[in-house]
Amino acid sequence: MEYLKVKRVIDLVLSVLAAVILSPLFLILFIAIKVDTPGPIFFKQKRVGINKKHFNILKFRTMRIDTPKDTPTHLLGNPDQYITKVGKFLRKTSLDELPQIFNIIKGEMAIIGPRPALWNQYDLIEERDKYGANDVPVGLTGWAQINGRDELEIDLKARLDGEYVEKRGFSMDVRCFFGTLISVLKSDGVIEGGTGIDKVTQ
């Protein structure tokens, strides 16, 4: 419990610093998204947070506005037809996730934790219940993200989330943080139409 309080302070400080430092990048992406296709800059979607409480996750929009709503990418017949040119770059580099810094500042997410499931992804939510993974703060990145991401099947993803819960602590969070930096640089596990939950229609 004590670590949770420390973790929240660390999350808040790092997120505020990131928001300030990355503000020029945010401005560039704002312009790129608006010039690329019509529609809003940001994309909000209902997700499942700690204790299965719903909240609106924030992302940069990477898909056309006529894309079917609340549908995981792997359930779309041809997801590439909906992804914008800028969106393809944002997804490959995971820059579309950056606005979740503000979800972290609001206390809806942590930097490290199980990725928040889509509100109607009942199979994943049910699997996570088996491991207590719905009872911890959801994260911008986590143990499952550096161990397969979009390549993972639902049951394995839930087991990895459960492993994170079991080993949760400062050293585990540091491991996930630096593992994420490496995965992002290598674009590991990013598969459009994969079974992961991170990339959903926008």
Task: List the main descriptive attributes of the protein structure presented here.
single chain; 202 residues; mainly alpha; three-stranded antiparallel sheet; two-stranded parallel ribbon; 7 helices; 44% helix; disordered C terminus
- Total helices: the number is 7
Please outline the major beta sheet.
3 strands, antiparallel
User: How many beta strands in the DSSP annotation?
Assistant: 5
Structural class: mainly alpha
Q: Which series of helices and strands comes N to C?
A: HHEEHHEEHEHH
* Beta-strand content bin: 5-15%
Task: Tell me the strand order in the biggest sheet.
Answer: 2-1-4
The whole-number mean of residue pLDDT values reads 87
Helix content: 40-55%
Task: Using the CA coordinates, give the radius of gyration.
Answer: 16 Å
pLDDT below 50 for ≥5 consecutive residues: which ranges? 191-202
What does this structure look like?
- By secondary structure, the protein is mainly alpha-helical.
- It has one domain (1-186).
- The protein is 44% helix and 11% strand.
- It is built from 7 helices and 5 strands.
- The protein has helices at 2-21, 23-36, 85-93, 100-106, 122-129, 154-167, 170-186, and strands at residues 42-48, 54-60, 110-112, 117-118, 139-141.
- The chain has a 3-stranded antiparallel β-sheet. The chain has a two-stranded parallel sheet with strand order 3-5.
- Helix 1 (2-21) crosses helix 4 (100-106) and helix 5 (122-129) packs parallel to helix 6 (154-167).
- It is globular.
- The model is unreliable at 191-202 (pLDDT under 50).
- Keywords: Membrane, Transferase, Transmembrane, Transmembrane helix.
- This is Bacterial sugar transferase.
